[in-house]
């Protein structure tokens, strides 16, 4: 019987996607164990904007991390919100002297 799946282990799909995004954009960093993408060049003199959400079709909010957009993104598992530990890691990754705004979409 042939296998109909491209990836045989669904537990690695989100991290694989995030690694690909970070590899294509040198201004991004990744904390793989927590699925947090953040700007490597974050300016702590500006407000940090962090979004988090599930990874149903893709870790969607991570595509908005960049200049003039999000400072970081915490990707939950497929159809699940990020945990408090993940959001905390995103906050620590992009510290701000002006404050942090959290947008959690799930």
UniProtKB/TrEMBL annotation:
Q: Which InterPro entries match?
A: DhaK_dom, Dihydroxyacetone_Kinase
User: Biological process (GO) annotations?
Assistant: glycerol catabolic process
Q: Which residues form the DhaK domain?
A: 9-106
GO MF annotations in UniProt: glycerone kinase activity
Supply the Gene3D superfamilies for this chain: Dihydroxyacetone kinase, domain 1
Instruction: Report the superkingdom from the record.
Output: Eukaryota
Question: PANTHER family in the record, alphabetically?
Answer: TRIOKINASE/FMN CYCLASE, TRIOKINASE_FMN CYCLASE
Q: Which GO terms describe its cellular component?
A: cytosol
- Any Pfam family from its record, for instance, is Dak1
Name-wise, this protein is DhaK domain-containing protein
């Amino acid at each position: 019987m042939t296998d109909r799946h491209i990836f045989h282990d669904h537990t690695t799909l989100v991290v694989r996607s995030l690694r690909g995004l970070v590899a294509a954009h040198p201004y991004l960093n990744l904390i793989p164990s927590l699925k947090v993408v953040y700007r490597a060049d974050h300016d702590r003199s500006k407000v940090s904007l962090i979004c988090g959400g599930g990874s149903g079709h893709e870790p969607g909010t991570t595509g908005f991390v960049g200049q003039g957009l999000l400072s970081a993104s915490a990707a939950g598992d497929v159809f699940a919100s990020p945990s408090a530990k993940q959001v905390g890691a995103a906050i620590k990754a992009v510290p701000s002297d002006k404050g942090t705004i959290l947008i959690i979409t799930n």
